[in-house]
Queue: 2 jobs
Job 1
Amino acid sequence: MSTFGSSFRVTTYGESHCRSVGCIVDGVPPGLPLTEEDIQPQLSRRRPGQSALTTPRNEKDRVQIHSGTEFGYTLGTPVAMMVLNEDQRPHDYSEMDLYPRPSHADFTYLQKYGIKASSGGGRSSARETIGRVAAAGIAEKYLRMTHNTSFTAFVSSVGPIHLPLTQQPDSPEYMEFLSNLTREKVDSFLPVRCPDAEYNEKMGQLIAEYRDKKDSIGGTVTCVIRNVPVGLGEPCFDKLEAKLAHAMMSIPATKGFEIGSGFLGTEIPGSIHNDKFIPHPTDPTSLATATNYSGGIQGGISNGQNIYFKVAFKSPATIGVAQDTTKYNGQPGTLEAKGRHDPCVVPRAVPIVEAMAALVIMDALCLQQSREAARSALPRVAQPMGLKTKEVMDGSERTEEAEKKGQGVVFGDE
Amino acid sequence: MSTFGSSFRVTTYGESHCRSVGCIVDGVPPGLPLTEEDIQPQLSRRRPGQSALTTPRNEKDRVQIHSGTEFGYTLGTPVAMMVLNEDQRPHDYSEMDLYPRPSHADFTYLQKYGIKASSGGGRSSARETIGRVAAAGIAEKYLRMTHNTSFTAFVSSVGPIHLPLTQQPDSPEYMEFLSNLTREKVDSFLPVRCPDAEYNEKMGQLIAEYRDKKDSIGGTVTCVIRNVPVGLGEPCFDKLEAKLAHAMMSIPATKGFEIGSGFLGTEIPGSIHNDKFIPHPTDPTSLATATNYSGGIQGGISNGQNIYFKVAFKSPATIGVAQDTTKYNGQPGTLEAKGRHDPCVVPRAVPIVEAMAALVIMDALCLQQSREAARSALPRVAQPMGLKTKEVMDGSERTEEAEKKGQGVVFGDE
Amino acid sequence: MSTFGSSFRVTTYGESHCRSVGCIVDGVPPGLPLTEEDIQPQLSRRRPGQSALTTPRNEKDRVQIHSGTEFGYTLGTPVAMMVLNEDQRPHDYSEMDLYPRPSHADFTYLQKYGIKASSGGGRSSARETIGRVAAAGIAEKYLRMTHNTSFTAFVSSVGPIHLPLTQQPDSPEYMEFLSNLTREKVDSFLPVRCPDAEYNEKMGQLIAEYRDKKDSIGGTVTCVIRNVPVGLGEPCFDKLEAKLAHAMMSIPATKGFEIGSGFLGTEIPGSIHNDKFIPHPTDPTSLATATNYSGGIQGGISNGQNIYFKVAFKSPATIGVAQDTTKYNGQPGTLEAKGRHDPCVVPRAVPIVEAMAALVIMDALCLQQSREAARSALPRVAQPMGLKTKEVMDGSERTEEAEKKGQGVVFGDE
Amino acid sequence: MSTFGSSFRVTTYGESHCRSVGCIVDGVPPGLPLTEEDIQPQLSRRRPGQSALTTPRNEKDRVQIHSGTEFGYTLGTPVAMMVLNEDQRPHDYSEMDLYPRPSHADFTYLQKYGIKASSGGGRSSARETIGRVAAAGIAEKYLRMTHNTSFTAFVSSVGPIHLPLTQQPDSPEYMEFLSNLTREKVDSFLPVRCPDAEYNEKMGQLIAEYRDKKDSIGGTVTCVIRNVPVGLGEPCFDKLEAKLAHAMMSIPATKGFEIGSGFLGTEIPGSIHNDKFIPHPTDPTSLATATNYSGGIQGGISNGQNIYFKVAFKSPATIGVAQDTTKYNGQPGTLEAKGRHDPCVVPRAVPIVEAMAALVIMDALCLQQSREAARSALPRVAQPMGLKTKEVMDGSERTEEAEKKGQGVVFGDE
């Protein structure tokens, strides 16, 4: 339905031509400094009309915070946010409305609900993502302030043109590239947002070609999440990669998701693909991995390495090219979309991918913090780290303190 | 956590060496004929020891139904099912336990929970999937009886060897192949479960090579779901492909998911990739699509076409090859797994992929049936089908046809 | 948190002095005729300033529908509604702010969140209930159109003055009274909303006395739900009375809940308290009960009789009487609230109790409709109704049709 | 449905005559010492056959832990527990089965599910509560170890005989009585569990009278929760009293719930009923209240005082007295229950009430710990406690550190 997350929980609403679109965010940590200035930047990155390659409609999309903050701080109560729709009139019907648009949601929405919004795709419109991006602004701010976590996405392919690095899972150069990428750098490669001058140019040309043909083309967005705390993700069903996949595949027009080495990784033998452990470069009490085929998640749980994943977006369904198809009433006909349409969605998808990633990480953090708080109130249990032998676990090495408490094998430390 | 689904809701439990593994299934339709014979077959397909290519351990895995049925019918109350673990002793510790196994969940489980099961990976073990497969037995039985829905998965690649058809999104031959595949056919290609004599053989040889090298290799499983009712999937966040992605990426060892044309589809222009509508071959009141790049889902909602998707599984992390890695205590060392291990998981993953797909479809069906029931208690609202004009929506233009059918385009009255 | 319900799901937001208060309602049946005119009446009944007995602030409280409808019909997508706050300025601080107000939420909110809204109680303010009442407008409209279900609450006591009938569980006169009550009748007894001239007058005088003393007094609200479909409620944890209790006790200032005969019923022997069955007066295929001590729910499931329950509301905590208490900083002091305050909340609580009841019934209906749809797709199972013998259930009386289908004991009809 | 709680989440299963009854508990804190010895005592207190006043059936009810622990500690993974049913045969049908038993769940279960368990009430049987009590054993152990929280319930009335103290809301004697009560003391007053020699005796006699008449009688159970951390409860919908009400009203045979002063409290003026603050007797940084009419919860959030509440249980529906009622088929008849039945459930309800209270508090604690962890990672926001003035909140007393961080008014400490 229209709610995502359990502890940090976002509920969105809004169609293309109703009064507004927006969200309610519940479970916001209290005491977070928050104003509309924290939310607006990603909404502005998301909106159309940023270049000749995206749709010209300029929606402005100014966010309003309606609740949950006072004097610039969150209260811990639900934060409601909204963006007014500029064009609030339902659509005027025309010849085009006799057709369910191919690969659009017209047919399935009508079948599912028995009624559908007059135009713009209603809830299947990309405009629905405004609520997600606004909500993620809160998550991002919190994660940045408390863990310096960052979410950086970029265009990794348009049609058959791929940024080569992104096809070399875990090459040291690729890992280095991901470690140093910033949004500023990505946005310096407008309009495509592929952070490589040569490929940004090639991809831009390809999109322009499809635009000129009134056709469209797909692509992929890759995202890296840095400074993720160890331990996020809730086995078995809510493994971190499962939640990320869910989140990404809920974005309109997505067709695929892969984490770390992904589909290419299936062809790499275990002896190479296994990420061997090394001492952690900065934390002597932890471990890191020498490679990162896993993409920062093992057993469904973050391991502290960079999380990176790729999302496939299909070629936009709205095209000016004439399409031989069938009307709702079963009669054949030819459909030709009017106006200008996005020939490729990936440049604008970049902040949406970042937003959904932030929602996933924030919710997972809240859940894990609850567990850590619960566990930290208990005496420590004897654990491996070189100590884990049958004898120890059997209790033959009881500590005096443990004996006193009557709580079995308890150690002051691991 | 350990619950999946909202209306048809599965909660699983169990580690490798506790008393049992199993599940509670809530929201089971009452009056469904159900015995252990309905559940056992997929559990048997799932268990190891079916061939020289999979692990030799024969767990038997006989399911017991503990509640929720009487005289062979479900009561609508929770169905608890369990499979006893044959080996219920915790693990004897050894040198190997000083190491977090590379690309295993040892390190992350310990970090997350501050404690971990002595062996076998605990909840990260494939043995955890028994509860899922048992629960799916109920979903499959219901869906087969009521909608003739079928779930058929097969191995589409092992390492670099791909069944070529599966790399031709929406070629007519591939669509035909998916429409006719059966589990019986898939199982006639043991041990690999690639339903093509030539490729089954090639893949089997490749797996054997890796087994002999004490190494491992990954692969992909493709699944087709046939006879899915139109209208399943809950926008915006619970789009049907998002739930499928979530479900698949929650299976141990998965690295990627793609629906329909998937990643390859991003390279196909919209003018081709759009699935144009045609009159429905058997239902004159509905439409079908000429192609199926979408993989049976548009706007997050099933459109009645076959749903097909592909899941990537990594090379198993447990290998006999010596690995230079680091102990929990930060000291370097060389880890060499003993015993025989699965060199490739995809053959055994086939019934698990089918199971998770069945859980997703069943839950989505329950949600949509609720909506349809709610909506069908209301008078019909005027709808498009070639008639959708503002005037019509206002109710001023009744059609004769609508009058006759008492459905479809019906105005009249509230 | 701020979400209530699973299939029909309401999320509310808003404090007293933020921009607006409101809600998002997800799971709305598509095709329901709905405009703001359907929502406003209960909001108007709820707002303060309706008489000399309630607080003079006139909030106006005009609702806006922001999404989820088009041309006067619901789309099945989330319906967002809001009411602007007229006074959007945070509170000016004064001497009073040095005190946590006794029996208010000041202390607990601050302890819980580490921060609290400047005034008005934030989310603990009765203003928060606007979102609930707005959401319930949708539920009520749907239930009225499809099942003629009605929700009618009234004031049953103020302080020690009780409407005598409501203390006679299941007297025929009381049952008759509940069967015939309407909102119009209740509202003809303003300001107290006790639908009995004598007691309305007495209660009104008592409230006026407490108002004049700058003190406050509590009371109870009783609610009857008529035309509830049989079968609502989800054992074990979501029994219908459990959800009603949850809903009512989530209303600010509530202290108790009882269903049917309630606490008095504990003193009535089983031989009298048991509701014996009688043939249903209008439906020959069903049964009714001769008495209704159960309050329309047995085993957590509605039985088709009227549901009635009583809710206790405490004396309002904000009073003008001087109170010797303690400041946040631990120093003693005397607190005296300024301005005029509600001396008794029950008159205004009437529409809020109705609203929460409607949300519970609507959600329960959606869940049960899902089950009924699921079960109705299966062949009927042989059931009691005079036929339920061991032989029949064992299958020795298989029907031919059942044999053919291979589905065990199945009868054409019950 | 059959799941309760969100972070600490219990799912139960089982009917009277299936293989077993039990539960899966998800969200268990890892590292908790836990064996079956922790679970059994409350199960033994709950089971029938403890005295001449309760039903003679001795079910034994030995619990087995099936998962989630190793070497006596919880792993953080789901804990499955079960109790085998000794009598696993479905019921032999008889004349009695032609009748829906008055005030039982026979009629409503059949209407809801279209099928029902052969006997014993299926899921509506008190045997279903075994899973709840087992799950609560984990919650209680955790809360006792970490917060010394205790849950103590007792019988406060049988029929019209009330323990007088429990009708004097917040008399100092009653508060003292609640503060000192222990389970040991309660159990020293078997069979009734009313911890007062005189009233225990009177109540026992009354129950015996009803038993001898083959009739039944109701009563109330009161429960006190001590050492509850401040801050538990999730406004708006999941206020702590709302969750407690939900939990209690989900226990079979309950008819009412009241918190603190409850229904009697509605008759007490605000000037008395308000719980004035006093300096906390042991914690100089906090406050306590001089009285406790609120029952330990204000604004839906625990305030650190004792939580106490009362639950009404109806007279058991199964009685030997002949009842003139109607068969499923609409024919009149006389029903006479055979065998011996519980003439009053409240003595056995005591551990069930304690169990549900523990599940509520545990889940609320997990949620609040998550919030506290989230908030504690942020810089502190300036807060009242004697400091809260308009100037401070406006930022005119900014700290240097806050200035640097650009985060407004932030103090090192409150």
Job 2
Amino acid sequence: MSKILRLNMVDKSFRWEDVKPDWQGLGGRALTSRIVREEVPPTCHPLGAANKLVVAPGLLTGAPAANAGRISVGGKSPLTGGIKESNSGGLVSIKLARLGVKAVVVEGRPENGGFSVVKISKDGVEFLPADEFAGLGNYDTMARLWERFGKGVGVMSIGQAGEKRLMGASIHFADPAGRPGRAAGRGGLGALMGSKKLKALVVDDAGADPVPLADREKFKEASRKWAKYLMEHPVSGQALPAYGTAVLINIVNEAGALPTQNFRGGRFEFAEDISGEHMAELIKQRGGKTKEGCHPGCVIQCSQTYHDKEGKYLTSGFEYETIWALGANTLIRYLDEIAVIDRLCDDYGLDTIEMGCTLGVLMEGGVIPWGSGPAAIEMVRKVATDDPWGRIVGNGSVFTGQALGVDRVPAVKGQGLPAYDPRAEKGVGLTFATSPMGGDHTAGYGVAVNLLGCAGGGNPLKKEGNIELSRNLQVATAAIDSTGLCLFVAFAVLDNPDALQCIIDMINARYGLSLTGDDVTALGRQVLKDERSFNRDAGFTKAQDRLPEFFKENLKPHNVTWDFTDEEVDQVLADL
Amino acid sequence: MSKILRLNMVDKSFRWEDVKPDWQGLGGRALTSRIVREEVPPTCHPLGAANKLVVAPGLLTGAPAANAGRISVGGKSPLTGGIKESNSGGLVSIKLARLGVKAVVVEGRPENGGFSVVKISKDGVEFLPADEFAGLGNYDTMARLWERFGKGVGVMSIGQAGEKRLMGASIHFADPAGRPGRAAGRGGLGALMGSKKLKALVVDDAGADPVPLADREKFKEASRKWAKYLMEHPVSGQALPAYGTAVLINIVNEAGALPTQNFRGGRFEFAEDISGEHMAELIKQRGGKTKEGCHPGCVIQCSQTYHDKEGKYLTSGFEYETIWALGANTLIRYLDEIAVIDRLCDDYGLDTIEMGCTLGVLMEGGVIPWGSGPAAIEMVRKVATDDPWGRIVGNGSVFTGQALGVDRVPAVKGQGLPAYDPRAEKGVGLTFATSPMGGDHTAGYGVAVNLLGCAGGGNPLKKEGNIELSRNLQVATAAIDSTGLCLFVAFAVLDNPDALQCIIDMINARYGLSLTGDDVTALGRQVLKDERSFNRDAGFTKAQDRLPEFFKENLKPHNVTWDFTDEEVDQVLADL
């Protein structure tokens, strides 16, 4: 039987708890959001003692299902002031699941004393002083933790940004090679972890039993089909493994939806230079690796190892969103410069989307010149120093806009927008506006339908159909995020009705249940209800479900504007 | 007939407009809040083109009534994101009224070009380039504007903080001696003025006719009594002229409500050193002046000229709130150090309450030591330099808390709290929580009743009576703020029923009306309704009507906590 593990960071104690009956059917995002909803006072200060950091594997995590190893991290967001679930790959999720940990709830805030490392293993839970790790970046932290606790242990850690409780701070997860390229990036949860004085969570599943399966045969059958469907789909089976997520650069640029120069245009002159195709070429030339998974059991393998000109390791998990944010959005055209910033962000523990939006705002305010990689790199480096600029840029795009008196800030609910101009991809634009997460693409990825043609395709430039699209995808995604499955299973699920049935069959076979498609939809709806009710009590209204005013400007090349009325936007999540 | 003057800052044009019928009976805060409510989109960015800066004399301003020369400044607040009215003394209000200007509405936001000075006189309206003033502090700006346009003209200006659009920036008004000691301090309206690229408004009423009075005799009779009542009351007639508002230091300290060390205690060990009594002594020794009015026609004279040890002018308008914020709150015990910071704030154009709360947060975060005047002075000086710390501290207490990851920040709706611990003065505490202005004492000054014993007195330490007290004072204050009368008339009004009748008689005699006390209350209610509906549409809910969590801590010496339930707090303005 799985348990809830509560860590008290004040007296360094822990407690195992049985899972409450109404939490039994929850996992991943459904569970983190429920625990936050029930236990965190919505009006509390995100860095105060009352906030909690919740970490939960998904419902399918740990079982032999392809791409089910994602971890959900939740809490009241330091960045948005609302509820937050941010998920990531890495090793921690599967290991927690194998140890029978349904969720870890990190509680309390030490007033004094240094950082801790908490180690969870079959032998129990240990609080260890982290003096030797405090002040280190994620690269060194993970390397030293592997040295100390054994190669291959799961690590979740923060860098200097999280230690400083900066609102752009992310939480990083060691990938199978022990590198911090994987992150629960969004919403400043690294600052929440920093406020708890938790430098790292180490999870060692040595000696743990396999995750129990109620019906082993049925599970095997469903999971075999499942892997096959994922590999058969052209996006998850071919495009992503070949070029990584950066395959989207050329596609989105062609669609006129690649935000350029702080969302001034939809096409980047030098898109080719930062494309996934070009990246794959460089990787091959320099001896990196194009196909890697962020967790064991991944059959998509969209990650990669990116080397510098000298053929030395530079960064990994080098994503489309990162490359857009630090590239097209800032007019920086050199992939190597972008890779350096990505590396710094992984090391310091900073969300790359937020940092890209922030650098755009810095350029908007004239602090550094448009397109200057060296100036951007110098600015990001300040996050790990005592320079107050580091505190400004590490706190994200809205904060930096306020520091500079700049109002052209692409953000919703305080969170910087991802790599799709909402005027030219209206489906994801509605998700940006209405998701309880703030500006977020993963919460309802209209791009899959409108730009990649899944589920018969849609029109990214017109309003028609996009309200329903965003709603349906937000509901479905909330359910997917609760299973531990990677978001990139969505392509297969959208195009193949059998794929959704596979997920349901796997859940049923894992737990001995008989859920239907309706139950899954109901789960997604319930997640959104939990999240929206938290935000409501935290003081959010429809007024926060709005894009910045400048999206009324005309966007080239399609000459489109953000033309939804407030009433239309409010329809997206009106009836859950 | 009075007119509305609209300034278009983009094309440097202006337009005179007749006053709409339903604006006729409004003035001061009632008018600025109504114009903002009707014309500013509540969800707009405060520094964007859609926000407006509205300046309005009160209903009685310009007429020969004692203490009626206050000016109201309104807009969407860069600091709180809600509606803001901040009022001030100075010369501008009376001169606008005499020129027949019911309100100035500053519109549009220039994308290019430098700052402007706008001059309003009998001869018309002129836009002048402000290149020679840009970058100057308020002291130099005012001095040079008097040099250029004549001694005694009205000046409303911003310093470096407003030019940089920092959220703690205030708008300053030349006092009768041409010094910037008077400010519409709160809510960052200086940043709004900066975003409009308006460095200063100059108002010259030379040659203007006296303000018309519908019934001269009745007005004279009422105004004679009015001045007498003000001077007869011990607070406005004796305490304030003798010691300035800083007379409150010893009183509030004695009451255990003087917030000390970032609201950790209610008594300051060195209160005597920063008291009004001590200040008056120093002023006398050093050749300053204890009794000055902030505008012609003031009979209270709570202002002063404060000299340094060498007997040279240091600062003026040296208020209780300022001395508390920069003194007891930061543990700085030397009045001369506090005076230097006050002087810098007046010069750069910074709200002293916000800066005091900000310095407390900086000390809380360990950036500068508690009680160090020199360190605080150095930090404030950075606001006028390129040092990014200046951008942090100039943006106020909440921003600085976010920069440092400090959650002990005494603020409501983003605005730093004034000089009364809400646990030990629960009446004003309820005003802090519920005022549409954010943490503000002037919006419903329970202190007058609970600590100064007006209207029969009240109990500052108990809940009983304070919900009604805060509500009634908020309604009454909204009406008073619409007349142009100084808040310090409240003592006489609270203790003498004839005084309120005097105000009504003066308004009636000025405009030929026959208003009653009920009409005045209705006006106050309507102002609050306008303001609250703006905030609601801007996205505020009850969740923002809350004090920070740390006020649940016990406060010495009275061992009191903030013990109102949310439901009780929500009763304050539930039925308007």
